[in-house]
Structures are given as C-alpha cells and as structure tokens.
Write a structure and sequence with these properties.
Layout lengths: L5 E14 L14 E8 L3 E10 L1 H4 L5 E12 L8 H26 L12 H6 L10
Length: 138
C-alpha cells in the first residue's frame, strides 16, 4: 500500500438540464443546489459518487433551470486514510467538488445562458452529516 491516498480520475456519469422560462424580465429565482454523496469500495480502492440537483422542489422557489449532474471519482487508499472512512470521504469531496463546479459552469454556459457557478460547500458539515462511521463501506 502506498503512503498517501491517490486520486485515479473521474468521469461524468449523467447530466441533464431543462429550462423554466421566466414570464417576465422582473421575475426572481431562488437557486439552492442540493448535494448527495455516496461512497463504495474496499480496503484498497474506493469510488465516490457526487450528485448535484437544482430544481424548484429542492430550492424552495422557482429556478431558471432544472439540473442534475452525477460524477464518479476513483481513489486508491493509502496508509494515511486506510482506517479513516470519513477522511476518505473528505478527501474525495475536496477532490471532486472543483471538477463538478467547473462542469456545471461549462454546462450552463454552453446552453446560451449566463453561467451558473456552484457556491462553495462546507465539506466538514457534509462529512459530519453522513452516516455513522460503522455504516460507511469497509
């Protein structure tokens, strides 16, 4: 086993976007991204799947678009995090989030609309909100 956990790459698994056209120029929107994260693996390798969803139901108000994007990151476990599942998750989120942020910005820009840049997330709170240590994969 190598001394440090290694990021082996990522892929975009799915992405969809649809538009909710405003009825007037003065219409306001509320965009509140919702993030989900799942981790699977074993003592040598793990995969983390990060999903971002933007829609009126989760945002609590009208959104200019509905978006869902899912990205998987692949990691080789190192000695530094071999016994720390929350540390593995933290490392994965810190690694994947900039890729997801850039992807969402590029996707919205490519749709001939002003770019939407995901706000920064509190990774520590997200990790703390995950299931109990015993429930994370081995």
């Amino acid at each position: 086993m190598q001394p440090h956990t290694i990021f082996k790459g990522y892929r975009v698994d799915a992405a969809s976007i649809s538009f909710n056209m405003p009825k007037s120029k003065d219409e306001t929107f509320k965009i509140s991204p919702h993030f989900e994260c799942k981790m699977t693996g074993n003592s040598e390798n793990y995969t983390t799947v990060l999903t971002v969803v933007i829609n009126p139901q989760l945002s609590g108000g009208k959104t200019p678009f509905n978006l869902e994007a899912t990205m998987s990151g692949f990691f080789a476990v190192g000695e530094d995090l071999s016994c720390d599942k929350r540390g593995q998750l933290r490392f994965a989120l810190q690694t994947l989030f900039p890729y997801m942020r850039a992807f969402v910005t590029t996707l919205t820009t490519s749709c001939a609309m002003p770019p939407f840049i995901l706000p920064y997330i509190d990774i520590e709170s997200m990790v703390a909100g995950m299931r109990a240590e015993g429930d994370l994969p081995n």
